Every structure is written in C-alpha cells, then in structure tokens.
Amino acid sequence: MPQEENVELAHRGLDALNRGEFEAVIELCDPEVEWKAIPGFLPDAEDFHGRAGVRAWFDKVGEALRELRWEVEEITDGGDRLLVALRLHAAGRASGIQGEFQIFQAWTIRNGKLTRLESYLSREEALDAAGMQG
Q: Which of 24, 50, 85, 95 has CA 20 to 30 A from 13's CA?
C-alpha cells in the first residue's frame, strides 16, 4: 500500500472515532490486530487482541469517559509505521470533570489494515516503538 494511503487510513479511522462509528474503526483493523494500552497509565490497563478486543476496549473507555474527541496534532509517515500524536478531550462519566491529555501512538499498517496500535504518553517512546528514532 502506498504510504500516503496509510496516512489516509489513520485519518479515516480517527474521523470515524470522533463520529462514534466504532464499527467503521474496527473494519480498518486486521482481524488479529494488537491494541496496546499506555504502559502504567491506569492501574487496570490491559492490552486487547483482535477485533473483539478492540470492541471491548471501546466498551471499557465508554464506561469511564464521555464526550470523547480525538484531535490529530501530527501524523508522521514512516512507511508501514506511523507516529500519531493526539490530544484527547473527554469528561469523566461519573464525575463529569472535563480534561485533556496528549497521547502518542505507533501504528503498524500492513495490507491496508491496522495490525498494531501502541499508545504512549511520550513522543520518544512512540517514535521508538514505531522504529522511527534516529
């Protein structure tokens, strides 16, 4: 798949996510996708596998947060690997408290499908995971 199509896939997925079209996001994933949580970010953070795992991740996030909006700050193209920098805007479901934080992701795309998504709190960790460190 040409590299610009990988960046377009990322934009399509994030746009669908912001519209709440979770099945459209899942369709962009390989059936065996690996969905990696931010290391050490939440006490009950877990990794997910496969499309059913991604659905479970959406359910888990939806139980904790509402009014989610994923703002793309940067997508760096590294061929079949992308660095995706996002600002997440959300409110706690129970508290209603609004918040935002920055997330950096390493995406692996093969044959037009997302095969691995790894999330980090630092750009450097995501770059390293994406194999894009100098």
A: 95
Give 49-105 pLDDT, tens digit per residue: 999 999 999 998 888 889 999 999 999 999 899 999 999 999 999 999 999 999 999
Please, which residues bridge with residue 74 across strands?
A: 85
Check residue 43 and give its pLDDT.
61
DSSP summary character for residue 42: S
Assigned CATH topology for domain 3-129: Nuclear Transport Factor 2; Chain: A, (3.10.450)
- Cα distance between residue 28 and residue 115, in whole Å: 9
Residue spans of the domains in the chain: they are 3-129
CA distance 128 to 134: 9
CB atoms within 10 A of CB 30: 17
C-beta neighbour count of 29 within 10 angstroms: 20
